[in-house]
Specification:
The complex is a heterodimer. By secondary structure, chain A is mostly helical. Helix content of chain A is about 70%, strand content about 0%. Classes of the chains: A mainly alpha, B alpha+beta.
Amino acid sequence: MTEMVYGSMPGRVAEPVLPRWWGTIDKWSMTAILVLFAIGLLLGLAASVPLAERNGLDPFHYVQRQAFFGGVAMAAMVAVSMMSPDMVRRLGVVGFLFSFFALALLPIFGTDFGKGAVRWFSLGFASVQPSEFLKPGFIILTAWLMAAAQDLNGPPGKLISFGIAVTVVGFLAMQPDFGQAMLVLFGWGVVYFVAGAPMVLIGIILGLAGVGGFAAYNMSEHFARRINGFLASDIDPRSQLGYATNAIQEGGFFGVGVGEGQVKWTLPDAHTDFIIAVAAEEYGLVLVLVIIALYAAITVRSLYRLTRERDPFTRLAGTGLACIFGVQAMINMGVAVRLLPAKGMTLPFVSYGGSSVIAAGITVGMLLALTRSRPQGHMGDIFRGRK
Amino acid sequence: MIRTPLRPLARILHARATGANPDAIERENLRQRHEVIRDRARGRAQLRLLFLCMCFFSAFTVVGARMGMLAASEPMEPRTAGTGVNIAQGRADIVDRNGRVLATNMLTHALYVQTKDLIDPARVARELAAIFPELDAATLERRFTDGRSFLWVRKVMSPEQMQLVHEIGDPGLLFGPREMRLYPNGQLAAHVLGGASFGAEGVDRAEVIGTAGIEKALDARLRDPAQAGEPLELSLDLTVQATIEEVLATGVRQYEAKGGAVILMDVHTGEIAALASYPAFDPNDRPNPLADPNAEPGDSPLFNRAVQGVYELGSTFKIFAAAQAMELGLVTPDTPINTQSLSVGKKRFSEFDNHNYGPTKTVAEVIELSSNIGTGHIALMIGGERQKPFLKSLGLLDASPVELVEAPGARPLVPKKWPDVVTVTASFGHGMSSSPLNLAAAYATLANGGTKVTPTLLHRAAPMAGPRVVSQQVAADAVMMLRRVVTDGTASMAKMDEYAIAGKTGTADKPKRGGGYYDDKVVNTFASVFPAEAPKYVLIVTLDEPVDRTGPEVRRTAGWTSVPVAAEIVRRTAPLLGLRPAIAPQPLDGLTAVKQ
C-alpha cells in the first residue's frame, strides 16, 4: 500500500560487498595464510628472543612488532582481496611506479644498516625495503602488458615488459640484492611462459643454460669449486648451513621441545633466513611438514584455480603472484636443507620483518582477489556448441 | 594461406547499400577472432599452469622429503673442542729402493676428556693413573675439576690401553682417532728417517709433521695430499743398511770407540745405499736433545756423524793433492818427490811417528806410504790459489746438499786465509774439517771417471752427469794409487781375495775445544772405492776415538781400526749389491759339487 501511494524507496542498487567477498574468496588459501602467520608469531617467540637480548630489549619486543606489522598485513590482505581485478591492476601499476621510484632513489637516500647492501629507507621507527613492494607491482604490470599484447593491434607488451624487467634487475643487482633480482626475473619468466612463450624459445634458453653451465663448470675453476663444495656431502659444521643442518637433525621428528632449541643462539639469521631450522629443532619434522604443506597448498591451489580463469590479465597476474610467493618459500627452505646454494631469502609471513610481512600481505591479497570465483562464460560456450 | 579480411568487400557493399554501418562488421569480425585467439591461449595456458602446479608440488615434496631424511639422520658430534678442520691426513709412506717399508702410518686413538660429562672425576683420575703409569691421579683430578671443559690426556694409546679406558666406562672419556707415524724397523736408518710428531691436533684427526731427517726435509712432499698415495722411494737398501749397522756397531764396540759412521754410495748416481751413524736411536720413541748446553753434540744419539760430524779427515785428503797435480800436468804417478824435509816459514813438518822415507819417492809411493812431507811438496807445487777452488769443486768446502734437514747446518770448517802453511796442512787433511758425506762425494768423483757427484737419498734411475772435475786418465791413475795403498800400503787389512778395494786411510788428532789437539783421541777414516778395476761404490768408514788393544802396543791408526771394519762391510754387502767375487768360494768340506 505504502509503495502504491509513495512509490518504492529509492534504494541503492548494489550488491552487498562482504557476503559476496565471503562467497567467492578462496577460503582454503586464506585459512592457510592465517595459519602461516600464526606459526610465524609462534616461531618468533622462540627465534627472536636471542636477538632482543643481544640488543638489550624486552625479550618479546620483536614478537610485538611482528604482531603489529602482521595485523597491518592481514588488514591489507583483506582489503586488497575485496578489489576487483581492474582495481588490483590499478593498485599494482601505481604501486609499481611508487616503489620503482623509491628503488631508484635508494642509492641517494638509502641506508645499509652495516650489512653492505643499500636496500632500506630508514624511517626512524621502522625501515622500508622498496624491493619487497616492487615485486607484486611488477608482476601486475607485466601481466597487464602481456595480456594486452595478445590482442590484435595490441601494444608490443612482451618487449616492453622485458625492458622493464631488465631495468629493475639492474637496479636490484646494483644494491646488490641478487636474490630479489632472480625472483623478479623468475616472475617475469613465469608470466611469459603462461602467456604463451614459444616452445622453441624455451628449448633454446634451457639448452643455452645447460651448455653455459657445463662450460662454466669445466672452464672456470672458481665456479667448479663452488659447485663441488655445494655438492660435497660434508660441510663445515661451524657455518650457518652447518648449524642449520645440525638443528634439523637434532630436532628429529617431534623436536627437542618448546624453548629448548640451541640453534637460535648461534645463528645470527635465526629469525629471518633460517627460521625453518628453529622450527625444525624445537617442534620437529611435524611442524616443518605442516609449513611446507601450507605453502604448497596456497601455491598449487591458486594455480589450479587459475586454470579455469578466462580473463588473460587475471590469469597471468595470478600466476606470477602465486609463483613468486611459492618460489620464495621454496628457496628459503631449500637452502636450509642444502638443496640449493646459500641465498638470503625470507620465508613469507613466517620470517621476521615489517616490509616483508606487509608486502607479502599485499601480494596474497592480490592473489586472493584474482582467484575469486567469477562467472567464466561456461553457458556461452555451451550455447555456442563448444566444449 | 588464405587470409580472411576483417572487412569483406561483399558484406561491406551490401551494408552500404542497406544503409547499415560497415564498421560494425569489422568489429564483429575482430571480436570473433579475439575469441578464437583467447580460446587457443587459454587451452595452452591451462596445460602450462598444470605443468607449473606439478613442478611446485614436486619441488615442495622434495624439500619435505629432504627435511624428513635430515630429521631421521643422526646429528654430528658437536665439535666445539675441535682446533681445526683442515688438517691434512695421509702422510705418504717412505720405502727403500726395493719398496720395503721404512715409515708408514698406523691408526691409533688419542684420549681426551670433556670434564662436563665426567660422572666421577676422582675415580676416573685414579683408574687412568693405574693404566698410564706416567699420569698422576692427584694432578689429573685437579685438572678435571679446575673449570676447564676440555683436556687432552694421551696423544696415542695401544689397543689394550684403549680397552682398559673403555672399561672405566665414564661418558666424559672420549677417543679421537688419528694416524701416527710408525717406523717398523725400529732403529734401522734412524738418522736418515729422523722422526715425526703431531702438529695441529683436532678431536678426530691430527696432523703428522716431520721433526728431523728426511721426514722434515721433505715434509711438504710427504704431506702433499696429491702425492699421498705414492710412497717416497729412498735410495737406501734395507738389507745393506741393516748389515752395515750391524758391522759398524760391532766395530765400534771392538775398538772401544765413542761412535762411528758409515756411508755407502753409488759413484755414478750419487745414490746413498746406506748411511749409518752409531750410536743410533729409535725414531718411534725419539729421545730428547741433550739438555746440557756444554755437552758435545756428538754425545747425543740423535747426532748424525755421517752428515753433521765435521771432522779433520786426515790423510784421506792426500789423493786430492796428487790428483790435482796430475790434472795440472805437474806430476805423473812416477815423478819423484822430495820426502826428506819440508819447512814453510818457521814451521817444520814431519812424518807420522817421525818416519823417514828416504830422500825421494814417486807420487804413487807418497800416497801409498802416506807421506806428509811428500804431499806437502806436491801441494806447494799446486799453490793455494789453485788448491782451494779444486777442493771446492769437489764439494768439500760446502754443506752437503743431501735431503736431510741437518745437512745445511753442517758447514765445513775452512780457514779464512789460505797461506802456504794451510796449503800444506790442507793437503793432508788437517786444519780444515769436512763431513764424511762430503768425502764420499769427492771420492765418488775420482772413482766414476772424474765427474762431480751430488749425493742424494732419493732413488734415481739414471746416472747423473755432473760437471767434469778431473780427466778420465787422472781419475783412473788416482784409483790405481788408491789400490796400491791397499795392496802395498797402510790399508793392507782391506786386502782380500774376493773383492779388490782401493782406498786411503786417514788418522786425525781430535781438536780440543779450547784449541790444540789431544794426544790420545783420534778420528780414523777409511775412504775406499770398490771394485777397484771398475769402481761402482764408495765406502767411507769413520770411527770416533777408536783404539786397537789387540796387539802388543796400543794402536790408534786407521789402518788398524777403520780398515778392518770397512773390509768386513765390503765382504758382507758386496754380494748383496750384486757384485761378483773375483774367485769362486771354497766348496764346503766334505761336499762336492755335482756336475753333469
